[in-house]
């Protein structure tokens, strides 16, 4: 199960390149993102550009702020195969995935990170994805997949997911693009 | 030990062997790299606690404890399980017999097997001792101290900055470890990101571990290299530290905003590695790693309010009419803090020079990477200090590799402008300053060009110790004799005082005759 709410940008207001003040499931901590329809055109990623195979209708962009940041605090499950007992026994792993991209040869980008915290909010694990460089996109508009996985440390209770879009240069549009963001847990046989 | 190491360096240099011995970038395994480094002076604690222990961010009932498991300091990935359980103990005595707190924390490979333990429930204003256990081994014992509450008659603290590994040994840290101080403030340039400098041993006592650092693995190794100086680990183990950073923790003169994706990758790697190696308390705010939140206000009883500034993460480019060195949110936070500041000494931990600095009369600013590149914001902040009636402001600064004492005025170009505080810019630990000739020529020129500049000394290295009472703030400039000697003795070059309720500083009569390249009140 994907623990990220609205990681696919499909829910809530949006659809154009106009920034939106609120995003379903996310706290906007800086700037204002746009949730853009793949059919918008105008140089934004289209259904034909590199991106998730099942990409729905929209993706996240950085809007027109130099730095746009979205945050989501995820409570890890209390019970079940990936619940607290399993986490504390060292039997749970996480995988974080995001499709991250940008525009042509520009270096605007977006970074996805997940920080696992214990019950007092202390960071105990971290994975950082991106931002994807223009070279890593082959200089083409589009999104590429980035993923990381690791053990959920014993004591982990929450995960803070942070999505940061950064603009470079003097343009207006913050052309970091993101879609298909996910955080999943899986039970393993034993302590690794 | 000193002689042997120098002999070894000289012999290696003469034989042309340094390229095969000191540099760690020539295909050595991590174990070989460590051996080479140790032969030439680096020394590590027993594994897995090679990098030592540290504490930071002292509060009345809490400190943060730090260690990192790194059995192979120069390995990109440690030969350890993915998660290692680390036990920690806090006690009221150095032998750890009277235990007051203990617990366990996971050290994850994703954070370089570092742990950051916010210990709570401690008593205010006292020492504690602590240690870690992992993989059947016990770390060295560290000492820390909680902040006091209420009436406080004295606080002493040290400020360190700019510790280029290749420029000298850490005699300053060794001395700080032996100082009777309540805490230490590090003002940045804890590591340097650039590649090797060469010139060992004639110009440099040692060198970096390889080329310019760019990735998380690179930055981890660089931090591990710096922690290979035992005096740095000793200073960490002796006192709790407050921390800010300057540019070289990432790259020279960078702005934290506006960079493209390649730079943002590098910045995130550098910030993560910094967190992994520092006793830093994070995630009490609205951010998260890999963007640690550094700025904070801490109190030392009713005597001192310390405001730690982050002048890198949120700054814009230099020399813009609407530029910012603080970022909008931190500026607003700072101004609000000024508005509600208690009656106390107000100390700003400020990585890079606040005061205006022209190179010569009528000349341009020397460095607009300093606050001189953010004129409107400086005037706004200092104007706010004046308008709010904030008194007893002392700014402590690093970066410059030389000592300055400045009067802080709202408008530095107007000698009638309100005087709102004093800035003490400390000598560097090791990072190279200008030549003695340059200092001799330019000290008087800077003095003439900057009427608020009271003192300049650039021929020495060391740190500052600040001694604060309700009546007086005294800055003691501690200097080492020789950066090439890891045990170089420390002396006090001079002392400046600021009296409570009186803006402006004055030099102690007893040290007014000490060497300096500029002194306004000569």
TrEMBL record, chain A:
Region: Disordered, residue numbers: 43-63
Record protein name field: Phosphoesterase
Lineage of producing organism: Bacteria, Bacillati, Actinomycetota, Actinomycetes, Kitasatosporales
UniProtKB/TrEMBL annotation, chain B:
Superkingdom of the source species: Bacteria
Region of interest called Disordered, as start-end residue ranges on this chain: 486-522
Record domain Phospholipase D N-terminal: where: 51-146
PhoD-like phosphatase metallophosphatase domain residues: 157-476
Classification via InterPro entries: Metallo-depent_PP-like, PhoD-like_MPP, PhoD-like_sf, PhoD_N, Phospholipid_Metab_Enz, TAT_signal, TAT_signal_bac_arc
SUPFAM superfamilies documented for this protein: Metallo-dependent phosphatases
Name of one Pfam family that matches: PhoD_N
Protein name in the entry: Alkaline phosphatase D family protein
Organism: Streptomyces luteolus
């Amino acid at each position: 199960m994907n623990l990220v709410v609205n990681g696919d940008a499909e829910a809530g207001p949006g659809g154009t390149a106009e920034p939106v003040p609120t995003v379903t499931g996310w706290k906007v901590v800086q700037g204002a993102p746009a949730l853009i329809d793949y059919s918008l055109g105008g140089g934004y990623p289209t259904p034909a550009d590199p991106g998730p195979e099942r990409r729905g209708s929209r993706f996240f962009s950085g809007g027109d702020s130099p730095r746009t940041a979205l945050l989501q605090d995820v409570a890890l499950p209390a019970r079940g195969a990936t619940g607290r007992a399993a986490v504390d026994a060292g039997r749970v792993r996480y995988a974080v995935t995001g499709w991250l991209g940008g525009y042509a040869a520009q270096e605007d980008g977006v970074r996805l990170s997940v920080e696992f915290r214990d019950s007092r909010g202390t960071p105990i694990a971290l994975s950082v994805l991106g931002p994807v460089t223009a070279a890593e996109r082959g200089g083409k508009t589009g999104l590429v997949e980035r993923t990381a996985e690791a053990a959920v440390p014993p004591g982990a209770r929450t995960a803070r997911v942070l999505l940061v879009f950064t603009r470079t240069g003097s343009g207006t549009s913050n052309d970091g693009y993101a879609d298909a963001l996910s955080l999943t847990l899986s039970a393993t046989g034993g302590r690794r | 030990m000193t002689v042997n190491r120098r002999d070894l360096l000289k012999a290696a240099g003469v034989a042309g062997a340094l390229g095969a011995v000191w540099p760690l970038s020539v295909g050595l395994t991590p174990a070989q790299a460590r051996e080479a480094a140790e032969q030439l002076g680096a020394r590590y604690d027993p594994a897995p606690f090679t990098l030592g222990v540290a504490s930071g961010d002292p509060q009345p009932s809490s400190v943060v404890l730090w260690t990192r498991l790194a059995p192979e300091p120069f390995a990109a990935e440690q030969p350890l399980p993915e998660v290692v359980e680390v036990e920690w103990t806090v006690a009221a005595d150095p032998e750890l017999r009277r235990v007051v707190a203990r617990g366990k924390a996971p050290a994850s490979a994703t954070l370089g097997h570092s742990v950051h333990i916010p210990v709570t429930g401690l008593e205010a204003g006292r020492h504690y001792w602590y240690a870690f256990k992992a993989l059947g081994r016990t770390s060295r014992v560290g000492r820390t101290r909680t902040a006091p509450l209420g009436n406080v008659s004295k606080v002493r603290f040290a400020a360190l900055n700019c510790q280029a590994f290749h420029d000298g040994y850490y005699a300053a840290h060794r001395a700080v470890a032996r100082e009777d101080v309540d805490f230490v403030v590090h003002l940045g340039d804890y590591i340097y990101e650039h590649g090797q400098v060469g010139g060992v041993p004639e110009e440099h006592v040692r060198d970096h571990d390889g080329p310019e650092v760019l990735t998380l693995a690179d930055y981890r190794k660089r931090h591990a290299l710096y922690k290979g100086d035992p005096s740095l680990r000793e200073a960490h183990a002796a006192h709790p530290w407050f921390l800010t950073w300057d540019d070289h923790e990432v790259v020279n003169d960078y702005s934290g905003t506006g960079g493209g994706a390649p730079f943002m990758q590098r910045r995130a790697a550098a910030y993560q590695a910094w967190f992994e190696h520092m006793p830093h308390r994070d995630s009490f705010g609205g951010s998260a790693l890999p963007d640690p939140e550094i700025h904070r206000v801490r109190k030392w009883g009713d005597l001192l309010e310390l405001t730690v500034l982050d002048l890198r993460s949120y700054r814009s480019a230099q020399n813009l009419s609407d530029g910012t060195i603080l970022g909008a949110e931190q500026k607003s936070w700072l101004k609000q803090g000024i508005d509600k500041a208690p009656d106390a000494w107000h100390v700003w931990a400020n990585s890079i020079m606040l005061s205006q600095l022209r190179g010569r009369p009528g000349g341009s600013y020397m460095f607009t990477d300093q606050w001189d590149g953010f004129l409107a914001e400086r005037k706004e902040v200092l104007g706010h200090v004046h308008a709010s009636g904030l008194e007893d402001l002392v700014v402590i600064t690093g970066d410059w590799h030389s000592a300055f004492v400045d009067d802080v005025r709202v408008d530095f170009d107007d000698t009638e402008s309100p005087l709102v505080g004093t800035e003490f810019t400390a000598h560097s630990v090791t990072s190279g300053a200008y030549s003695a000739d340059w200092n001799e020529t330019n000290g008087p020129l800077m003095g003439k060009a900057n009427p608020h500049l009271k003192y300049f000394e650039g021929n020495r290295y060391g740190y500052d110790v600040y001694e604060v009472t309700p009546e007086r703030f005294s800055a003691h400039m501690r200097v080492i004799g020789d950066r090439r000697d890891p045990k170089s003795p420390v002396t006090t070059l001079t002392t400046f005082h600021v009296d409570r309720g009186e803006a402006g500083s004055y030099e102690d009569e007893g040290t007014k005759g000490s060497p300096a390249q500029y002194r306004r009140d000569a």
